[in-house]
Amino acid sequence: MAKVIIFGQRDYAEQAHYYLTHDSPHEVVGFSVTGDWMKNETFCGLPVTAFEEVEQKFPPGEFSFFVPMSGRRMNKQREEFFFAAKAKGYSLISYVSSRATLCENEIGENCFILERVNIQPFTRIGDNVVIWCNVHVGHHCHVGDHVSIISGTSVSGRCQIGDYSYIAANSIINDHVILGEGTLVSLGSVVKSHSEPWSVYSGNPARKRRMRSDAIEFL
User: Fold this and answer.
1) Across the chain, what does the average pLDDT equal?
2) What are the phi and psi torsion angles at 162 (to 5°)?
C-alpha cells in the first residue's frame, strides 16, 4: 500500500480518487497542481498543495504520485508532469481495475487501466498509459509510453502502438499493424495498415489526413 498524491484538480483527478479509494490498497492523502492552476485549497475533501513545493509537505520516499491526466498535446502534457514528479524523487503508482482481465502482463509506471479492459497474453504496456473501459488489446502487442486508448477500441494481435499515440473511441486496429509515434486515430476508424509518425488517420479503411497530429488543438 502507498500513500498517494494525485496530480490534478479536475475530472480525471476526481475519477482517480474514486477508483483508488474504492478499488485499490492505496490511500489518497491529497492533490497537487502547479500554483497557477490552483482553484481551491481542498478537493474531494483533501488538501491541494502547489506542485512547486509539494515535496516539503509530502516527502518523496514516504509518499507516491499518480498523474492521471488527459491526452492533451498528444499525451505530452501528461508526460511533462510524469517526469516532473520523478525528478522530485517520487515513485509513481499504476492503477489497474479489479474488473480488468490481465494475463500476467508487464505494466509500466503511472498507468490508468479501467474496468472491462482485456489484455491478452504476452502483451506489454509501457509507462504513463491510459486505457479506458471496454478496450481489448490482443496477444503479443506492445503499447509504447505516453499512450491513450479510449473506450470501445479493439487492438488486434501483434500490433505495435508507438509512443504518444492517441486512439479515439470505438476504433479498430487490425492485426500486425504498427502505429508510428504520435499517431492520432480518429473516432470509430478502422486501421488496416501501418501509420506514419505524427499523422492523423480516420475512416474505414482509415486514411492519412493532411494535418499533423500535434497540430490538433483539442489534443
Assistant:
1) 97
2) -65, 155
